[in-house]
């Protein structure tokens, strides 16, 4: 259930209601919007009736939430959530661009690419230090050494770091280095990992699983939100279908659908959806037109020599051209590039 408070509700009213709910072993989540404060109740709602709740001072009305995802729903919070990363706002009118290589390969490579994407218009730096690979013989990442290189690249460019977490045991390590923790498609339903991320105070970029429905995607976000971490960014990166002309099928319709169902920011990874350089630009422009709050694009100074995903990585010059095209589409839909 969601408790909608009157505009005149005092802090004392809120505190009293929260304490009463906790005394009944319910978990209340308070969300203060522009016009209203609402309290979402997680737990066995049969413990307290709607009529009892409506009798509390400051309560305007009580709404039953039918959707399985409570905290992620528009019913819980009507306004768009805006997540701040080092002063960069994700989820507002401005579209953010996260760019960088699939893998951190060496110090020179990541610093060089970071400087290039910074000049081209990127607002955050992506780079994998722990790499989930289909083959156990493929490059698995530089791990902590790679994280240290990302930090050095950040020091030189000012770009906050987005990098992937694969295992619960590495959470503390990533908290030491990363500004945004990425959860890849393969781990979208790793519920033990998601529960732990609910306990941290760090933005989480959650990628949609390759065969997950929109509801399943939002339920995974709910695990993080229910743990107390409200900074979740959703990432559509393409789903697996029967096609062979692209690596995955970018679900463009999922962008406006998600925007209607949830207050969380929605970004798009056109690189993993495309799998081919020639498809990255049109998918990027389509994503902006569909309402994406951000883009996550793979860039490499020498894609032919890339340790991973070279076939879908743009060169810096291609990235620059794409950003300029993206600005025009953003203006057309009353948005702007950060």
Structure report:
The protein is of the alpha/beta class. The chain folds into 2 domains: 2-63, Alpha-Beta Plaits, CATH 3.30.70.1140; 83-337, Alpha-Beta Barrel (TIM Barrel). The chain is built from 11 helices and 15 strands. It has an 8-stranded parallel beta barrel with strand order 7-8-9-10-11-12-13-14, surrounded by 6 helices. It has a 4-stranded antiparallel sheet with strand order 2-3-1-4. A two-stranded antiparallel sheet has the order 5-6. Helix 3 (107-120) packs parallel to helix 4, helix 3 (107-120) packs parallel to helix 11 and helix 10 (277-290) runs parallel beside helix 11. The two termini are 37 Å apart.
What's the overall geometry?
elongated
Q: Determine the N-to-C terminus distance.
A: 37 Å
- Give the tally of β-strands: 15
User: Count of helices?
Assistant: 11
Summarize the structure.
This protein folds into 2 domains: 2-63, Phospho-2-dehydro-3-deoxyheptonate aldolase, domain 1 (Alpha-Beta Plaits), CATH 3.30.70.1140; 83-337, Aldolase class I (TIM Barrel, Alpha-Beta Barrel), CATH 3.20.20.
